[in-house]
């Protein structure tokens, strides 16, 4: 088991990519804390995940520094230490908003979760890891859209670009403490955010047409990459943003002859966790 006896916090671990990461961490022997703002959803995820190992659920808003501190403190109280911090929690607008119409409230809400939460969550986790005097790992969840100019999702893409740059400077700052920091950049993955981005079949098919592999990915595929970035197999990997996107990040033009998703298939995909 690659993460045997390791203790991890996974923010936004009650659904989507976070849930997939939680499952894969538990399969590899980790003890985990998951958090979400929706307590009912979080407790349900805890119950399901507990079949695989030890799981603590805590309601938290990662845009709050106090809540990030609480996550670390209660994790250490429960498990005695902290080895891995996965900054996965993210949010986005459910509607497209042009740059000229974005409000301060929209900006602050998305940046608070997607960038401030990663910045201070990682800082607080790293302080605990440094105090323990052993090795540690931080895995940030950025996005393929950190590198694509998606003008209908300006706050989201800007925040994820910040996460990828933050990952580099975190890695440099935390190297003396033997804490490695890397990011993963998911493309189209079965998740609530994907349902928002692909909110209509035509747009969804446009995304697929620029994804060479011709399908969307699964949360557990992201989970297996997160395991690699958290375990000793990646101990010479520092400050990297690794794409897990089926080729979406470098596909400039639609793939000739790609299979479109029918309305029925689309509806099934949108109902996935």
TrEMBL record:
Keyword Repeat included in the entry's annotation: no
Record's keyword terms, sorted: Oxidoreductase
InterPro entries: NAD(P)-bd_dom_sf, Sc_DH/Rdtase_CS, SDR_fam
An annotated GO BP: bile acid metabolic process
Domain of life: Bacteria
Molecular-function GO terms, alphabetical: oxidoreductase activity, acting on the CH-OH group of donors, NAD or NADP as acceptor
Keyword Acyltransferase listed: no
Annotated signal sequence range: none
Any one Pfam family match given in the protein's UniProt record, by short name: adh_short_C2
Family: Belongs to the short-chain dehydrogenases/reductases (SDR) family.
NCBIfam families (UniProt xref): PRK07231.1
Record-linked PANTHER family: SHORT-CHAIN DEHYDROGENASES/REDUCTASES FAMILY MEMBER (PTHR42760)
Protein name as annotated: NAD(P)-dependent dehydrogenase (Short-subunit alcohol dehydrogenase family)
Organism placement in taxonomy: Bacteria, Bacillati, Bacillota, Clostridia, Lachnospirales
